[in-house]
Amino acid sequence: MTLQVKNIDTFYGTSHILHHVSLEIADRELYAVLGRNGAGKTTLLRSITGTNPPKLGAVLLDGVEITHLKSHQRTWLGVSYVPQGREIIPDITVAENIYVALLGKGRRRDQVPGFVFDYFPALKPLAAQKGGTLSGGQQQQLAIARALVQEPKLLLMDEPTEGLQPSVVEEIDAIIKRIPTERNCAVLLVEQNLDFVRDITQRFAILETGRIVVNGTIDQLSPEVVQRHLAV
Predict the structure, then answer these.
(1) Which of 2, 19, 35 is nearest to 191 (CA)?
(2) What is the pTM of this model?
(3) Is the pLDDT of residue 204 over 90?
(4) Closest CA to 88 of 127, 135, 142, 45
(5) Which of 10, 67, 103, 128 is deepest in the core (most CB within 10 A)?
């Protein structure tokens, strides 16, 4: 089991956001967390990365408890994060954005790993271009590449298709499908695009006001479940 989240409670200040949340993600599994805006999805990811750790409960990676580790320590152990909004560093180049990610794992930082341009050929001619000049789709590819060069055991992705045109979503879809087997990595993604979720994931959970109210295999994400828990 790559990830185990056990009965975590997470707060922002005095606001109680997550309530006794538990989930497990198997090795090389693609898993989706769904929910309406404000349900606690990003807080769950931040609880796993350590940017907003839970006050109660436990988070385990490959059976090792990481609940109270700092974010950079979790990165070293194998947790990488593609944040909502991508957070590309705008004033440095594509290659330099990747070097910064490599620095986070103490790896050589003067050469882009070869697999990056296999996954993202569109980035190769842009390697010397500033990150802030890229299109939204190019920035999303760079954000995923930046996470993958850290060789994660668990890749967390927050709204990877947000704001992208359909052709770019198809490219991201194909890339994410390759990650579990080719990079030996489990993927946990938060996503609103249900067609995308149904196409790439094996299991899902739905958060509602900080609690998991439904979980199951992706074929159980029925129209009735969507209408009850996700429709706005």
Answers:
(1) 35
(2) 0.95
(3) yes
(4) 142
(5) 10
